[in-house]
Amino acid sequence: MEGPSFVAKARTAFNSAAAKAERVFTDLKFDLDSDKLSSKKFKNDSLTNEGEYKSFHEVKRFRWKPSNLGTKQEWQERFRNIGIGRKGVEDSEEVEISIMAVPFYDENIYLLNMKNDTEAKLLEVIPSVDDLNTINTKNIPPTSVIKQLTVAIEAGKKFERLKDLLASFETSSPSKEKAGLSFSAVKSLVIREKEDKLAFGFGDDERVLALIRALFDADEKFLQRKLVSDSNGCTPNISFVKDIHGAPPQSFVVKLSEVIGSFRSLSKMALFWCRVVTELRRFWSEERHLPGIPVNEIPDLNSCLLYQQLQVINCCLSRKRQQHIAAESFASEMMEASSNVKESDISMGTKSVSSALYARVKSRELVLRQGANQQLENLTMLETDEPIYTPITQEGPLLTEDLIREAEELVLRTGSVGAGCSRLLSDMQAFKAANPGCVLEDFVRWHSPPDWIEDEAEPSNEVTSRRGQLSSRMQKEGNLWRELWETSKPVPAIKQTPLYYEDLQVEGILNFFENIPVTDLFQQLFLSLLGLGFLISEDKLSADENLSKLFYECKRYVVATCQRNVWNHKLDELCQVYETVETMLTSPEEVIQTLQAEETAMQENGSPTGSELKPKNNPQVDGPPSIDESDLTVA
Predict the structure, then answer these.
(1) Is the pLDDT score of 55 beyond 50?
(2) Which region ranges are annotated with the description Disordered (predicted)?
(3) For labelling, which of 340, 374, 498, 503 has a CA lying 20 to 30 Å from the CA of 166?
(4) How many angstroms separate the Cα of 246 from the Cα of each of 132, 147, 238, 291?
(5) Burial of 356 (0-12, 13-18, 19+ CB in 10 A)
(6) For residues 269 and 126, what is the distance between their CA atoms, to the nearest angstrom?
(7) 3-state secondary structure of 375
């Protein structure tokens, strides 16, 4: 005979469990009804004597002794806890009951409360414009901001590019990761989950938009600090910023550094940078210059790469405007020339024309000058004796330090100098268009004067001798200049193929910003803000006899450390030095007392003091004291 089937066993187990559950709920209902009746009876009966009350109390206490009533109390408590979401009562005696009393509800309600607390705290990580203006502009940037940037640098080492960092926020699923983790791990996941939800609408947050408006408003005095300027309006001691490869004070990069460092979440710092890049794109599309960046200067290679790239954006915008003006001016000049002088009159020489518009070639015909800028004094063409005009030439490429490095590597790898040849050919074409009838020697006299050797001749009335010859390198067979000259045609710069495409260059920079290496971004922001702090401090501490020596020791340590390639491994030391400088500004008496105590202790121990080791320098006269490699330690 076959045993019971699996289905039959399952049905039997299910019926048994259902029967047990029914008995439990029946007992519960009976006990609840009993409670109601006894309570009602207790209220209605007036117990007038103590004996009756004791008898009633003993009966009631005896009635609550049975174990099944204890089970009822236990289930009542569990149901009550389930209803309000608190932890159930644990039973260590019975295995089945202890399993049902797993602290599931307690953990969930705790995590729920923690979510709410986290949300309230995360709302505080977005700084406001007023807070930044009122707190930070009076002093140097706080150490907390510097430290937050160092935290971002360390955290960014886990990611190669910004998109990798952003992807880590999007692809992670805290709800899926909770299973099987410890409570502390679940807690961190809950916090991250709340951060992700708040980050979803981060770019539209009113406080974020206010920060963006303040950063990009040229008239806004946002984070504007008063720095000492010389008679020329320049900030002294600016060399410190260049030594550490930071950004000029009051620049857009420095203000951006302070804003991003004021966030207390790596995700918010990254998202705010993305919002800044979006605004950079909008400014470029609307042809608006960026505030806090020179409008028409070549990249400053002594500043950080981020500042150089923003310089390129502004400079490209200025060039586009200049090209538009040049095109209109060229068209206007051509129309004026054609309307003032008829072609028949020019060929017959019956009209007196301006040399600024026309040049007489060797055949004595008048040819229109195109793209002429201004006349060179005392310099005429060798064959026609017509005045030489400087041409309007194309602007060269705007090279940042990374592009220069790439160009050098290309030359070393291939031996090609094509970019230089293109620029030279463009200049030759523009020169020919502005000076009809010119020869190579005329171009060399303007473009490379050292390659024109004048003949020794008797003094004459001529201011500049027209007799001479090209240098030996120019006369060599196969000379590149001569080959390019023979192939070049008279084409004004406005009609030439562009040597540099501003739109493509800026688009490349903005694309780079969207996927910038994380550590590179935060390192540049860190150095820029560090430089501002020391510039402000030097204005206040350099004249203090008690603190200037310590300040210059801190300054020299920072310079020596940042000029090494491994400075990012000494972030903690740099933060300690910066915090020391901040303490010198906020609590100078405390620092002076500490220095005096150390000096006294050294004298009592018989150790030579700093004044005995080397003479005191006057920073105002002798400059900062010298420093040795062995001195580069942080107390």
Answers:
(1) no
(2) 599-635
(3) 503
(4) 21, 17, 10, 18
(5) middle
(6) 10
(7) strand
Q: What is the mean pLDDT of residues 11-23?
A: 67
Residue 450 lies in a domain: yes
Residue 525 lies in a domain: yes
| Structural domain harbouring 47 | 17-102
Residues in the chain: 635
Is 194 inside a domain boundary?
Answer: no
pTM of the model: 0.71
Same domain, 280 and 341: yes
Distance CA 517, CA 514 (A): 9
For residue 22, the one-letter residue type is E
Given this model, what pLDDT does residue 122 score?
47
Closest CA to 30 of 91, 71, 89: 71
| Residue range 368-410, pLDDT digits in tens | 999 998 999 889 999 999 999 999 999 989 999 999 998 888 8
Total domain count, the chain:
4
Burial class of residue 33 in the structure, from the number of CB atoms within 10 Å of its CB (0-12 exposed, 13-18 middle, 19+ buried): exposed
Residue 480 has a CB neighbour count (10 Å cut-off) of 14
Q: Report pLDDT for 627.
A: 44
Range in 1-15, 475-489, 522-536 with the lowest mean pLDDT: 1-15
Cα-based angle 334, 336, 337 (whole degrees, multiple of 5)? 65
Looking at the fold, whether 157 and 273 belong to one and the same domain comes out as yes
CA–CA separation, 238 and 242 (whole Å): 7
| Mean pLDDT value of segment 495-511 | 95
Q: pLDDT per residue over 275-298, tens digit each?
A: 999 999 999 999 999 999 999 999
Of the candidates 129, 136, 142, which has an alpha carbon nearest to the alpha carbon of residue 213? 129
Is the separation of the CB atoms in 405 and 411 below 8 Å?
no
Contact between residue 441 and residue 382 where contact means Cβ atoms under 8 Å apart: yes
Q: Give the mean pLDDT of 143-169.
A: 90
- Select from 68, 102, 136 the last residue of a domain: 102
DSSP-derived pairing of the beta strands 468-470 and 452-454: antiparallel
Residues 70 and 156 in one domain: no
- Indicate the residue type of 557: Y
Residues 233, 336 within the same domain: yes
Q: Which residues of 312-344 are buried (b: 16+ CB within 10 A; e: fewer)?
A: bbbbbbbbeeebeebeeebeebeeebeeebeee
Q: What is Dmax (Cα atoms) for the chain? A: 149
Six-digit token string for 328? 């209109």
Angle 308-313-314 from CA coordinates, rounded to 5°:
95
User: For residue 579, is it within any domain?
Assistant: yes
For residues 276 and 393, state if they share a domain. Answer: no
As given in the structure block, the two tokens for residue 47 are 């117990």
Question: Do 165 and 231 share a domain, yes or no?
Answer: yes
Looking at residue 280, its pLDDT comes to 97
What φ, ψ does residue 544 adopt, rounded to 5°?
-85, 115
Q: What is the dihedral of CA 261, 263, 266, 271, to 10 degrees?
A: -100
280 and 338 share a domain?
Answer: yes
Measuring CA to CA, which residue among 285, 301, 213, 247 is closest to residue 506? 285
Reduced 3-state DSSP string for 142-161: CHHHHHHHHHHHHHHCCCCC
Could you count the other beta carbons within 10 Å of the beta carbon of residue 280?
Answer: 21
Contacting residues for 428 by C-beta, under 8 A, at least 6 apart = 443, 484, 485, 488
Would you call 390 helix, strand, or coil by DSSP?
Answer: strand
Which of 102, 135, 162 is the last residue before a domain boundary?
Answer: 102
Q: How far apart, in whole angstroms, are the C-alpha atoms of residue 62 and residue 56?
A: 10
The CA distance from 139 to 623, in Å, is 24
